[in-house]
Amino acid sequence: MTATLTDRFPQVPADRLLAAFVPPRHFAEARFDGYVPDAEHPSQAEARDRMAALAAGLAAPRRRPRLRRPAPPPALYLDGGFGVGKTHLLAALAREVGPGVAAYGTFVEYTHLVGALGFGAAVRALGQRRVICIDEFELDDPGDTVLMSRLLRELSDAGVTIVATSNTLPESLGEGRFAAEDFLREIQALAARFDVLRIDGPDYRHRSAPGVAPGLSDDDVRAATAAVPGAACDDLGALIAHLRRVHPVRFGALLEDVAMLGLTGVGPVGDQADALRLVVLVDRLYDRDVPVLLGGRGTEELFTDAMLRGGYRKKYLRALSRLAELAARGRAQSAAAPPG
């Protein structure tokens, strides 16, 4: 019988969380020489060279501190659309520097780490690293704004380099999500810490409509996943209901050892809180290179027009882009499998 994610309630001890702050499977082998810049967009090569130089400096032995106050460590912010290679460069930086020196995680994973360890313990643990790599930097609520502003300030004051990626310029974080003007001081304090590296170019997946992935019949999805050892298959509605009961910090553990995920009954997700949970799950699927088979309507109108016009637009577009890539991989893997 095919496994389901809804049967899983993973527990992740706090002491395991920090050890998992390394580049995910999808980017585990990311290297600077594996990043192929588009000649039509020179900013890509410039960003690669800047990141490579930073990695070389961080990997070098620390110099003995001088008597005068040292200059603050660099803080870089890679801004650009989805699919231009920001995450690849960030993962390459973490890989080049090494797991004992760099911490790598998404923005939401850092906020969850603080929740699990407590603020002081998180600062002490992260303060032992030379560089903190933050992928998908996004401010979704006032609490996150204040938390990350304080966290980055304390880490920077401790001599830790901060490197982040996002689809939104730092001074625009929070726009359309909450009353950002009420927290303008915190947002401006965050923005002032970063030197912005803009990376131009189209999505390397070359889709004019990101995330368009047709659905298979639900019966085909069930049959295909049943033929793959280690696969799981869930109804999308039931899975979303299950995600409400699982903390997002455990979504990665929810997918542990899953070789392929089939989703049946796929259709529009009308509730924004549910849609954002699905976005986090898609990110964890992408991190772990888990192929996906979509039934129902596929990604057609998976997120409503209102969502795609709202403050979380870039999150949804990123999820659609990634889900389409995983779905294409799932269809290719299923087609290549020998008949049962």
Question: Keyphrases for this structure?
Answer:
Cell division protein ZapE, ATP-binding, ATP hydrolysis activity, 340 residues, Rossmann fold, ATPase_AFG1-like, Transcription Regulator spoIIAA, 13 helices, 11% strand
Number of helices: 13
CATH class (first level) name of the largest domain: Alpha Beta
- Number of distinct beta strands: 8
CATH superfamily of the largest domain: P-loop containing nucleotide triphosphate hydrolases
Estimated structural class: alpha/beta
Predict the CATH topology of the largest domain.
Answer: Rossmann fold
Instruction: Give helix and strand order, one letter per element, not per position.
Output: HHEHEHHEHEHEHEHHEHEHH
C-alpha-based Rg, rounded:
20 Å
Q: Which architecture of the largest domain would the CATH scheme give at its second level?
A: 3-Layer(aba) Sandwich
Q: What's the end-to-end separation, in Å?
A: 15 Å
Shape call: globular
Share of β-strand residues: 5-15%
Mean pLDDT value: 84
Total separate domains? 2
Q: Unreliable runs, pLDDT <50, ≥5 residues?
A: 174-180
Strand order of the largest sheet: 2-3-4-1-5
How can the largest sheet be summarized?
5 strands, parallel
Binned, the helix content reads 40-55%
Short description:
Residues 72-200 form the AAA+ ATPase domain. Helices cover 42% and strands 11% of the residues.
What do these coordinates show?
It is a single chain. By secondary structure, the protein is an alpha/beta fold. The chain has two domains: 31-198, P-loop containing nucleotide triphosphate hydrolases (Rossmann fold, 3-Layer(aba) Sandwich), CATH 3.40.50; 205-336, Transcription Regulator spoIIAA. Helix content is 42%, strand content 11%. It has 13 helices and eight strands. Strands 2-3-4-1-5 form a five-stranded parallel sheet, sandwiched between helices. Helix 6 packs parallel to helix 7. The longest helix has 24 residues, at 313-336. The radius of gyration is 20 Å and the shape is globular. The two termini are 15 Å apart. Residues 174-180 have low confidence and may be disordered. Residues 72-200 form the AAA+ ATPase domain. This is Cell division protein ZapE. GO terms for molecular function: ATP binding; ATP hydrolysis activity. Keywords: ATP-binding, Cell cycle, Cell division, Nucleotide-binding. InterPro entries: AAA+_ATPase (IPR003593), ATPase_AFG1-like (IPR005654), P-loop_NTPase (IPR027417).
